[in-house]
UniProtKB/TrEMBL annotation:
<keyword id="KW-0325">Glycoprotein</keyword>
<dbReference type="InterPro" id="IPR034273">
    <property type="entry name" value="CuRO_1_AAO-like"/>
</dbReference>
<dbReference type="InterPro" id="IPR011706">
    <property type="entry name" value="Cu-oxidase_C"/>
</dbReference>
<dbReference type="Pfam" id="PF07732">
    <property type="entry name" value="Cu-oxidase_3"/>
</dbReference>
<dbReference type="InterPro" id="IPR008972">
    <property type="entry name" value="Cupredoxin"/>
</dbReference>
<feature type="domain" description="Plastocyanin-like">
    <location>
        <begin position="221"/>
        <end position="357"/>
    </location>
</feature>
<feature type="domain" description="Plastocyanin-like">
    <location>
        <begin position="95"/>
        <end position="208"/>
    </location>
</feature>
<feature type="domain" description="Plastocyanin-like">
    <location>
        <begin position="414"/>
        <end position="550"/>
    </location>
</feature>
<dbReference type="Pfam" id="PF07731">
    <property type="entry name" value="Cu-oxidase_2"/>
</dbReference>
<dbReference type="InterPro" id="IPR045087">
    <property type="entry name" value="Cu-oxidase_fam"/>
</dbReference>
<dbReference type="GO" id="GO:0005507">
    <property type="term" value="F:copper ion binding"/>
</dbReference>
<comment type="similarity">
    <text>Belongs to the multicopper oxidase family.</text>
</comment>
<dbReference type="InterPro" id="IPR011707">
    <property type="entry name" value="Cu-oxidase-like_N"/>
</dbReference>
<protein>
    <submittedName>
        <fullName>SKU5-like protein</fullName>
    </submittedName>
</protein>
<dbReference type="Pfam" id="PF00394">
    <property type="entry name" value="Cu-oxidase"/>
</dbReference>
<dbReference type="GO" id="GO:0016491">
    <property type="term" value="F:oxidoreductase activity"/>
</dbReference>
<dbReference type="InterPro" id="IPR001117">
    <property type="entry name" value="Cu-oxidase_2nd"/>
</dbReference>
Amino acid sequence: PSPLDPASSPSSEAPSHCSPPTTSVPTSLCLFLASLDDLPSLAGTSDVWVGSVGFRAPLSEMGRAISLYLVAVFAFWSVLGVRSEDAYKYYTWTVTYGTAAPLGVSQQVILINGQFPGPRLDTVTNDNIILNLINKLDQPILLTWNGIKQRKNSWQDGVLGTNCPIPPNTNYTYKFQTKDQIGSYSYFPSTLMHRAAGGFGALNVYARSVIPVPYATPAGDYSLLVGDWYKAGHKASGLQQILDSGKPLPSPDGILINGQGHSSFSGNQGKTYMFRVSNIGLSTSINFRIQGHKMKLVEVEGSHVLQNIYDSLDIHVGQSVSVLITLNQSPKDYYIVASTRFTQAVLTATGVLHYTNSQAPVNGPIPAGPTIEVDWSIDQARSYRTIILANTAPLINGKQRYAVNGVSYINPDTPLKLADHYNIPGVFIVNSIQSTPSGGGPSLGTSVLGASLHDFIEVVFQNNEDTIQSWHLDGYDFWVVGFGNGQWTQASRQTYNLDDALTRHTTQVYPKSWTAILVSLDNQGMWNLRSAMWGRQYLGQQLYLRVYNPTPSFANEYDIPNNALLCGRAVGRKLT
């Protein structure tokens, strides 16, 4: 490096004493160096460099001692105090069709890089993900990153309200950051009924090595994607046709674990392993358990929890949990079980926990799940620790639809985010849906609720139906503060857990019950609030939350990406 100019006069500006100007050394330390110039007992200076950091060092005996001390200080800073840029990770994924028989019947599935389920995406807190998605399907597609908050970046959320779908035989590059997050998540297609055919996978965000987690490092970890599965195809001749004809989804045909009816996971006796379990299905809550083994719950969608011990766990549609399993039993194989909850017929998939020194295959009865009663699941959810939105299942024009506060959502011809950015009229109206149930007749509409950046809101999900619900909010974690039977009232707040409520991105609402959440709206953008049960979402049980600040600022939200796809009434506009 070039030496500092010894003739420059003392200054309070850091760049005259720290070079290059982009150094990560704090300005306060540079100013401390500047103060050495004012010491009358120090005569003469010499230029000293430690790594990329330059400073002026005095030449007297005292000066040399101070110089050596400063060299040590800056060497320490160069090793521990200078943070490198957050890592960039690059991926190219190609989406194609393939054939598989997960339930014994050959059917068309969606592959990513030839894999079903798709590749496991392992990241670290604050990683920058650059993912080029090539669409080789015969239909447009989008992927959404379930649980990734997309700070200031709803442009990358991957739903039809924020992105134009990627046309066949074209590509789009997602650019997003796992900003300040850890935990177990998933990704899946958000377009049409593609999710019913695959294209989903695990997305794990690991803590940085310098950030401690409240449990010992496991010997390894496994991702388990559990969920219901249908033998009918996903296209117009299958599940999509059923929904388009105005009928609800039928009962599923089976349950899969990682795209199979039977999976195996190996571990060494005496070791502890993390199992990251996500319910990637369309409509069915799942109970998860392992024969003869206890599960220590340590994380739920990025939130560290009290580490309670469970024999089995309910995981509702769209939810993810992380549990620690210690292989402390006799060396043999044990059943891993995923079974449906709150269904008339219980469907079950099994896998195997295989001890590497196993001396016997799995045997004995499959461990039974909990009672079919809802109370058991409510009690478990409570142990984890005002807008009122009521879901309904109306018939509109003689066809089955699903609605929120009487409005069944329909996608406009232009993504809401683009319409908002370009001020395109006629696409949506803010607050086109009421913030409490109106009691009026059902209607079709493009539902958008307005809110201001930095608002703090309470949302109550009121479920008057006799089926369980699962709700997801893009862009946020929220505090789940209350569950209850019947109708929510203001007196229900007396039961809220305001001490150690769990944060998560997807919550269940039990039949004839309510769930209350609190949300701090600190992430500007257009965010999808939807039923995680995909048939209900497809037929209208969703809306968008427009979190807005009238003063444009990169501190609040990034600008439109320079590779954004334009469609609908946004075609031909400049990417500015």
